[in-house]
Amino acid sequence: MQWVRPDDAGYDEARTLFNAMIDRRPAVIAQCTDAADVREALAMARKHGLEVAVRSGGHSVAGMSMIDGGLVVDVRPMKRISFDAESRTATVGGGVTWGEFDRAGQELGLATTGGRVTTTGVSGFTLGGGSGWLDRAWGLACDNLVSVDLVTASGNEVTASATENPELFWALHGGGGNFGVATSFTFNLHDVGPEVFCGLLLWPADAARDAALAFRDYVHSSPEALGANLVGVIAPPEDFVPAQMHGKPALAMVIVHAGSVEEGREAVRPLQELAPAADILAPRPYAEFQGMLDDEPGQFNYWSADYHDQFPDEAVDVFLDYGKTLPHESSQLLLAPWGGAAARVDPASTPMARRTSRWVSHPFALWRDPAQTEEAIGWARGFRRDIAAFTSGGVYLNFIGHEGQDRIKAAFGAENYARLARLKGEYDPENVFRGNQNIQPATAEPAAP
Ligand SMILES: Cc1cc2nc3c(=O)[nH]c(=O)nc-3n(C[C@H](O)[C@H](O)[C@H](O)COP(=O)(O)OP(=O)(O)OC[C@H]3O[C@@H](n4cnc5c(N)ncnc54)[C@H](O)[C@@H]3O)c2cc1C
């Protein structure tokens, strides 16, 4: 265990998150290598009355994993990665990122649903549900969980699986870091690659409407191995992009097919036939594709999200309009299909409501100049306001920051929220783990006199 305090050399690195808007100064950061370290850190926080935050990949947009003045349980040193080709499972420590996970799986041609970028932590991503390129094929990351080891607020080490503490296991399918510090995750794996057909197609934003409508009409009927998102971007000054598009708004289809390269070519053909201005679809290692959208850390971030049961032409027009006014070259506007295996899970098996939603829209504002903050946040909020007529309620919590208890309740629905609150009351009655999309502990019914 390494304790990092404000005067220590590694302090600034250890308190830095992906979102540069977060600038918090904890009293101490406990860099934990195992469950015993986590127990010690939690005991230290109790002893000194310090508030606790738990940090892994540091991708929380609202900085939920960092705290002013408190104690941060930093699980990043937990880097165990163990892939078992025979049982087709992988067990990884709470500090592993999706890039590390996928590079290890690549060697064996095995993967599970992970992040759309390499730097996201397996921990926060999976505990929040975990939507990625492979979710139409194999469900969310949490749907692939075999078990989770965690240290609870009282310092107990527990394993949650379908057979051990099944109620807790249910809650860990989207209930976030509310129930303890996860030290290890075991996932089911699937054949992926090693090479997959993947890449992107690009259109100038002002000539993208037909392609966007065709994408909307095709994707849900396409093979479930196809992971494809519509993304409003600023075209980068890369060789594969026609020079006249450089630095201008563009519509991208970011695509990966998790089956054979031949099946992939077949599945994307209807999209390639939409006359893109740039086409860099090709066979590549899956782990290489997964890094194609990586953003530089150190930028300012604000995001939000909504579910949609339908995405009519009028909604596509709102999406395209906002894609033309991205606040910065790093900002993106995503439309992800939500369906396939992710929609087929038994609704009772996870607390997340609206698993059968058809789409998720996700304004993802990134910018560099603090003077642009108001404009960038205004852009993301403006999109939410203008797309509101086409939303279905509920929200995918991994894609938002602090938007209040109503949004958290909407993400689970009243019944599941009440069940989560009862469990929170059992595992964390004092709400030690509150740096998250917080579930308020239900207090036990007072005993009858
Ligand atoms: C560039 C980028 C791309 C993204 N892409 C996707 C995507 O494709 N799909 C998607 O679903 N989400 C995506 N996200 C959102 C991301 O999944 C969430 O922000 C997630 O919570 C990040 O997890 P983390 O471990 O990296 O972050 P952290 O900031 O370290 O933690 C996030 C939350 O999880 C809790 N937590 C972290 N580790 C533990 C642990 N070991 N035990 C208990 N609680 C813990 C923290 O306390 C905090 O509440 C993306 C985020 C970014 C910045």
Automatic annotation (TrEMBL):
Residues 21-192 form the FAD-binding PCMH-type domain. Keywords: FAD, Flavoprotein, Oxidoreductase. Gene3D superfamilies: 3.30.465.10, 3.40.462.20, Uridine Diphospho-n-acetylenolpyruvylglucosamine Reductase, domain 2. One of its GO terms (molecular function) is oxidoreductase activity. Its cofactor is FAD. PROSITE patterns: FAD_PCMH, OX2_COVAL_FAD. It comes from the Bacteria. The keyword Oxidoreductase applies. InterPro entries: BBE (IPR012951), FAD-bd_PCMH (IPR016166), FAD-bd_PCMH-like_sf (IPR036318), FAD-bd_PCMH_sub1 (IPR016167), FAD-bd_PCMH_sub2 (IPR016169), FAD-linked_Oxidoreductase (IPR050416), Oxid_FAD_bind_N (IPR006094), Oxy_OxRdtase_FAD_BS (IPR006093). Belongs to the oxygen-dependent FAD-linked oxidoreductase family. PANTHER family: BINDING OXIDOREDUCTASE, PUTATIVE (AFU_ORTHOLOGUE AFUA_1G17690)-RELATED (PTHR42973), FAD-BINDING PCMH-TYPE DOMAIN-CONTAINING PROTEIN (PTHR42973:SF39). This is Oxidoreductase, FAD-binding protein. It comes from Arthrobacter crystallopoietes BAB-32.
